[in-house]
């Protein structure tokens, strides 16, 4: 494995950017929340009649379901992921619509009794409420406020914590759209980065951690972080996650 700063930077920049964290296996780690989102989705999908997964990524979660509803739909905004998701979901009859994250959903009112979304970039609560059938549920795991702030501060200096991704904000948005929030759980989880290449790949993928991230722009802080990891071991941070379940009233 490359060990010099320049070698690690070059290795990280050669990794294609996409919503795929497989490259980080063995070089970074993040604990999973206690509620086991994938299991919850599988349980809900097994009894749903029509389900929609918003911002599905490459379709990995849906493709791994042990049982799918009679109607399974998904949306995704990034064209390479759209192609992958369509390929993975076609065998189970799933359809994938290419839709911008902040656009209206291309489905009729009351189309789905289940809507799911893991780590949305944008939340359109009125659209979620519109496509839910009366009595239907929305289940989502989301990134909370201040997630991985240790890495943000290491590169940018101390930063105020934005509340855009706060659980309380999601609660307010759901209720304003006319949904009843039936569950809201939060958890702080340990993260570990073993080398600076893992840090760079993560920051190129999760772009809101350091919004203007560029290796040359942040070369100084990256080099200092590389020296810290080399001298003291993995860089440790904290991810914030919350689970929200909301229901459209039956009448």
Automatic annotation (TrEMBL):
Chain ranges of the Methyltransferase type domain: 52-138
Domain of life: Bacteria
Organism: Actinocatenispora sera
One of the GO biological process terms: methylation
Single Gene Ontology MF annotation: S-adenosylmethionine-dependent methyltransferase activity
Protein name in the entry: Methyltransferase type 11
Protein keywords: Methyltransferase, Transferase
Alphabetical list of Pfam families matching this protein: Methyltransf_11 (PF08241)
């Amino acid at each position: 494995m490359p060990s010099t700063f320049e070698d690690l930077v070059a290795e990280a920049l050669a990794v294609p950017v996409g919503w795929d964290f497989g490259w980080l296996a063995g070089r970074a780690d993040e604990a999973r929340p206690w509620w086991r989102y994938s299991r919850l989705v599988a349980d809900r999908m097994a009894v749903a009649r029509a389900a929609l997964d918003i911002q599905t990524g490459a379709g990995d979660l849906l493709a791994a379901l042990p049982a799918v509803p009679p109607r399974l739909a998904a949306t995704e905004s990034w064209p390479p992921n759209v192609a992958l998701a369509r390929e993975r979901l076609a065998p189970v009859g799933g359809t994938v619509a290419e839709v911008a994250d902040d656009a209206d959903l291309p489905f009729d009112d009351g189309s789905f009794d289940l809507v799911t979304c893991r780590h949305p970039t944008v939340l359109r609560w009125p659209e979620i409420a519109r496509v839910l059938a009366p009595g239907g549920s929305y289940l989502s795991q989301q990134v909370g406020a201040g997630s991985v702030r240790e890495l943000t501060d290491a590169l940018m200096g101390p930063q105020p914590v934005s509340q855009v991704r706060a659980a309380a904000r999601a609660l307010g948005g759901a209720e304003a759209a006319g949904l009843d929030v039936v569950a809201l759980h939060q958890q702080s989880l340990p993260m570990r980065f073993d080398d600076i290449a893992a840090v760079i790949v993560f920051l190129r993928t999760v772009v809101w951690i350091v919004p203007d991230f560029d290796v040359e722009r942040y070369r100084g802080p990256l080099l200092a972080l590389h020296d810290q990891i080399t001298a003291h071991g993995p860089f440790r941070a904290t991810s914030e996650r919350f689970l929200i379940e909301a229901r459209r009233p039956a009448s």
